[in-house]
Amino acid sequence: MLNLPPVLIIETLKISSINPFLFLLDITLPDNITKLYLVHNTEDIIYQSRTYTKFPFQIELPSSRSKGQLPNWTIRVSNVTLILESYLEQFKGLNGTKIKMRIVNAGYLTVDHSELETDLEVLSSMSDAEWVTFICGGPNFLNQVFPAIRYISGSCRWKKDFKGAECAYTGSATSCDGLLTTCRSYNNSRRWVGYPGLASKGARLV
């Protein structure tokens, strides 16, 4: 059961209303920098201090599947202006693009609509002269590192982020093997994070 603000519940129960529900798309491209904000409407709107540009798109809701497959969403964004075409070429089909789909009521843009949000990821895409079509799915937990935190006896946790914020090494060395002896030679052992007290062989899940 959705926990919507009372004003939105009232709007959903009305047979007709001057305040339409609108679909919004927050599209974050694979560089995690470029973002597009689109609204399926006849005019731009401002929501959460961001301007959503009016833009034609279609959303096809996932159908139920009897064999346990994960549901996929199909989102078609107009390609008449070729705005997305350059991004498709630059980011190799935009696979991995994050899309937050929102439903908001045009008459109550300041109330909490968080119950009407869905996070999606572009799995594949195709384009023609009329549409850019995204096949989207929810977050795939099989792609996440498990376990989330690994404790290794002789190697520093920040090995893969050498000179990063946690490592904080600022010297002239260009690589690090993660060993404590190496970190000491760099005079940076105070930032070394390993667990020498653990057994060096085998693995244990906690």
Task: Note down, in words, how this protein is organized.
This protein has 206 residues and is mainly beta. The protein folds into 2 domains: 6-143, Pnp Oxidase, Chain A, CATH 2.30.110; 145-206, no CATH class. 10% of the residues lie in helices and 28% in strands. The chain contains 3 helices and 9 strands; from the N terminus they run H-E-E-E-E-E-E-H-E-E-E-H. It has a 9-stranded mixed β-sheet, with no helix packed on it. The model has no long low-confidence stretch (mean pLDDT 84).
Annotate the secondary structure layout:
Elements lengths: L5 H8 L7 E8 L6 E5 L5 E3 L2 E5 L2 E4 L12 E6 L6 H6 L7 E8 L11 E11 L3 E7 L42 H6 L21
Parallel strand pairs: 2-4
Antiparallel strand pairs: 1-2, 1-7, 3-4, 5-6, 6-9, 7-8, 8-9
Strand content: 25-35%
**Domain module count:** 2
Structural class: mainly beta
| SS summary, helix count | 3
* Beta strand count: 9
Mean pLDDT equals: 84
Q: What is the first-to-last residue Cα distance?
A: 35 Å
The CATH class of the largest domain is identified as Mainly Beta
Describe the structure concisely.
The chain has 206 residues and is mainly beta.
